């Protein structure tokens, strides 16, 4: 076996599908030592296994590409990320422990959620005060002026009509302000127009493909954070994405924005990807950037049982693991 310790594990794949693994690769995935790629494919969640098969079938080019995050059956409450790596003609799999990031992300999300809820409550309170105060007062004044028009001469009536019109314009402006202070919440059905608006504001075209596969029960906060993630990426990367996907990954909601091969690598110095990564992490996400994609994972936002990890015992018997 190869030697490696800590939060990373490596498995080198031979041309015949043989595996040479580090001890940490197996332990992080919660599986017994495997000697062939086919056995590993059987243990992996179906979505991750499909991505691995597709990665092997693509023309070989250098780089590292995330295959997805997995919750192993053992140890409990852990989260790992599996990546495909192709360098110097060598194909390898890398597994990275995200458990500490997961705990940090949960803590950040609690703080951010509390702040957003507080801000939303403040905005709703301001909107209610504007509606129940100035808007109602102006409406009442306009009504009184309408009654007053009946008892004045033609010249005064014309002035009152002009004043009523200006009051009506002021009411419309206040109602627009109320709508901006407390905007309608984003829903799954409203994702497409929201994404289109974000990329138009950034001076970019709509992503070539947009896929939304999130559970209907996803919490409103998580959906709002994903939208803010899209907004941050559109502002930082001056390129129209090749694909934008919102989907589940293990027990998380995932935002994946894909670009043409090598495009992000060319822009790395210009875009400040490190600053973008910090911004996305501040939203409570676990972030991964490659030469052709940016991904943000919101742990605990959604649950997809299909991404539970299957575990192998020492005798090779398959056990179905459940997420979290």
Gist of the model:
The chain is an alpha+beta fold.
Give a description of the structure:
The chain is an alpha+beta fold. The protein has three domains: about 10-95, PAS domain (Beta-Lactamase, 2-Layer Sandwich), CATH 3.30.450; about 120-180; about 190-300, 2-Layer Sandwich (Heat Shock Protein 90), CATH 3.30.565. About 45% of the residues lie in helices and about 20% in strands. The protein is built from nine helices and twelve strands. It has helices at about 25-30, 35-45, 45-55, 100-150, 155-180, 190-200, 220-235, 265-270, 275-280; strands at about 10-15, 20, 65-70, 80-85, 90-95, 210-215, 245-250, 250-260, 285-290, 295-300, 310, 320. The strands form three sheets. A five-stranded antiparallel beta sheet has the order 2-1-5-4-3. Strands 6-7-8-10-9 form a five-stranded mixed beta sheet. The chain has a two-stranded antiparallel ribbon with strand order 11-12. Helix 2 (about 35-45) packs antiparallel against helix 3, helix 6 (about 190-200) runs parallel beside helix 7 (about 220-235) and helix 7 packs antiparallel against helix 9. The longest helix has about 50 residues, at about 100-150. Residues about 1-5 and about 300-324 have low confidence and may be disordered.
Question: What proportion of the residues form beta strands (DSSP E)?
Answer: 15-25%
Characterize the overall form: elongated
CATH topology of the largest domain: Heat Shock Protein 90
CATH architecture of the largest domain: 2-Layer Sandwich
| Main beta sheet | 5 strands, antiparallel
Question: Quick check: average pLDDT?
Answer: 76
Helix content: 40-55%
Distance between the termini: 30 Å
Strand order of the largest sheet: 2-1-5-4-3
Strands, total number: 12
The CATH class designation of the largest domain is: Alpha Beta
Oligomer: single chain
Total tally of structural domains: 3
Tell me the number of helical segments per DSSP (H or I, 4 or more residues long). Answer: 9
Uncertain regions: pLDDT < 50 for 5+ in a row?
1-6, 302-324
Structural class: alpha+beta
Radius of gyration: 27 Å
The run of helices and strands is EEHHHEEEHHHEHEEHHEEEE
């Amino acid at each position: 076996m190869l030697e490696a310790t800590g939060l990373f594990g490596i498995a080198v794949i031979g041309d015949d599908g043989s595996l040479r693994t580090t001890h940490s690769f197996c332990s992080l995935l919660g599986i017994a030592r495997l000697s062939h790629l086919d056995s590993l494919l059987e243990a992996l969640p179906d979505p991750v296994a499909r991505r691995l098969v597709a990665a092997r079938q693509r023309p070989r080019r250098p780089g590292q590409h995330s295959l997805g995050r997995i919750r192993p059956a053992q140890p409990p409450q852990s989260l790992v990320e599996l990546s495909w790596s192709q360098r110097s003609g060598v194909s390898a799999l890398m597994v990275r422990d995200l458990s500490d990031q997961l705990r940090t992300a949960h803590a950040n999300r609690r703080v951010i959620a509390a702040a957003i809820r507080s801000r939303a409550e403040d905005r709703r309170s301001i909107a209610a005060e504007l509606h129940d105060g100035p808007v109602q007062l102006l409406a009442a004044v306009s009504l009184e002026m309408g009654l007053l028009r009946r008892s004045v001469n033609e010249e005064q009536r014309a002035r009152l009509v002009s004043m009523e019109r200006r009051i009506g314009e002021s009411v419309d402006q206040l109602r627009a302000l109320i709508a901006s202070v407390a905007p309608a919440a984003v829903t799954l059905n409203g994702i497409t127009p929201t994404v289109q608006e974000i990329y138009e504001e950034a001076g970019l075209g709509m992503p070539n493909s947009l896929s939304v596969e999130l559970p209907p029960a996803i919490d409103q906060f998580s959906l709002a954070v994903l939208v803010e993630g899209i907004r941050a990426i559109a502002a930082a990367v001056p390129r129209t994405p090749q694909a934008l996907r919102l989907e589940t990954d293990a027990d998380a909601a995932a935002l994946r924005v894909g670009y043409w091969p090598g495009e992000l690598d060319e822009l790395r110095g210009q875009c400040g990807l490190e600053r973008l990564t910090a911004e996305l992490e501040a939203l409570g996400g676990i972030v991964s950037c490659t030469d052709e994609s940016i991904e943000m994972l919101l742990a605990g936002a959604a649950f997809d049982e299909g991404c539970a990890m299957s575990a192998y015992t020492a005798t090779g018997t398959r056990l179905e693991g459940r997420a979290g």
